[in-house]
Design goal:
The chain has 5 helices and 8 strands; from the N terminus they run αββββαββαβαβα. The protein is of the alpha/beta class. α1 crosses α3.
Length: 196
């Protein structure tokens, strides 16, 4: 089901295409094997919970979500500002929050204002990247963080700070906007791009 969101396999494919664009713009060349589905094993995670949406029961029953497990070594420091939570460990240890509801939110802690990823497996000069995202990217940004050492992610729908100030303070080399057509076309979407 994945509610209305994209499946993780599509997130891996999207991350691959986004990485190609980043590499073209920044004149870098990341390890393309990270985006090869053959470099992951999978398990199906099932929640037996009701899905609440705006305090209404949308449906009740089983919700499954595929979890990807890299077959290569990973080591991250991830910070979820909304919880004041710093997590250190492997992809599985930092990218999944099995307590989150609905099942889609098990990927990457769901909708949060600010998340940061530091990939401790990557040495050398890397671009610092800021992702402006919505919930669809919860299955994209974890894969991008496997390819790049330093990524910050902001969901402008719930971020209540100044994006301009954040950029001035963190000095990213590249800002990438990853939004679904749904959010681009929703009423009030223009406010997402008021960067003051």
């Amino acid at each position: 089901k994945y509610e209305h969101h994209m499946v993780p396999k599509a997130g891996l494919a999207a991350a691959k295409e986004i990485s190609k664009c980043i590499d073209d713009i920044m004149d870098t060349s990341e390890d393309a094997s990270i985006f090869d589905i053959g470099n992951y094993s999978f398990t199906e995670y099932i929640q037996n919970k009701g899905l609440m949406n705006d305090r209404l029961l949308v449906y009740e029953g089983k919700e499954s979500m595929d979890l990807f497990h890299p077959l290569y070594e990973t080591d991250f420091v991830k910070y979820v500002a909304d919880y004041g939570l710093t997590i250190t460990g492997t992809f599985d240890e930092v990218m999944y929050a099995l307590w989150e509801l609905p099942a889609y939110n098990t990927w990457n802690h769901g909708i949060k204002a600010v998340k940061t990823y530091r990939n401790r497996m990557i040495d050398g000069k890397q671009p610092k990247i800021l992702l402006l995202t919505d919930s669809y990217s919860d299955v994209i940004s974890p894969f991008l963080s496997c390819a790049y050492a330093d990524i910050d992610e902001i969901d402008l729908r719930i971020f209540n700070g100044s994006l301009q100030k954040y950029i001035e303070e963190t000095e990213p080399d590249l800002v990438v906007s990853i939004y679904s057509a749904y959010d681009f076309n929703s009423r009030g979407a223009e406010s997402l791009f008021d960067f003051r």
